[in-house]
Amino acid sequence: MSLREEILEVSKELLLKHGFSKMSMRKIARKADVTATSIYLHFKNKDDLLLALVEESIANLTKVLRDALDEVASPVEQLESLADAYVGYALDNPQEYEIIYMVRPEEMPKYPKEKFQHIRQIYELLAGIIQRGKDQQLFDVEDPLVSAYTLWAQIHGVVSVILGKRLDTRISNERFLDLAKDHIIQGFIIQKTPA
């Protein structure tokens, strides 16, 4: 592991344990067993370090989603695959997931405009699939981009229940995830009425 990777790992741990405001370059240096000066060789400041953590996590999530996408599958199957991949990523990488979505906005440094494109890629990917489903008269949606954000918000809520350990103990995580995913995706599908 390179020094930069080690600094990011330690920072991730401290960020989630103590929050951004209590995370300092000195604490990171102490935990990584390096000098604070050596951290500045890789990151300008604490804000730069947090943005690097966010970018790395978004890039990893985007890769997982793109790898799960079968271009020849139907839009419904594509949404199901992406939902499974998203949930899998969140449950397998809870620290990275929390950095993307659960660091409080007031703790975030201003995110550079040019970097927003990386975040938008996920929503644009979803919106493209939803648009194809709409064009094929599979999905009942007005605005595919709004629907993409709605889909993300619903799946994010489901994941947050699991990661936050808020699920009723009488319900298994697997059953909850399967049924929740099914309900969310069925909400987009045009329901055929029997003739």
From TrEMBL:
Coiled coil: none annotated. InterPro entries: DNA-bd_HTH_TetR-type_CS, Homeodomain-like_sf, HTH-type_TetR-like_transc_reg, HTH_TetR, MT1864/Rv1816-like_C, Tet_transcr_reg_TetR-rel_C_sf. Residues 24-43 bind DNA. Residues 1-61 form the HTH tetR-type domain. It comes from the Bacteria. GO terms for molecular function: DNA-binding transcription factor activity; transcription cis-regulatory region binding. Keywords: DNA-binding, Transcription, Transcription regulation. The keyword Transcription regulation applies. It holds the Pfam family TetR_N. SUPFAM superfamilies: Homeodomain-like, Tetracyclin repressor-like, C-terminal domain. This is TetR/AcrR family transcriptional regulator. It comes from Rhodohalobacter barkolensis.
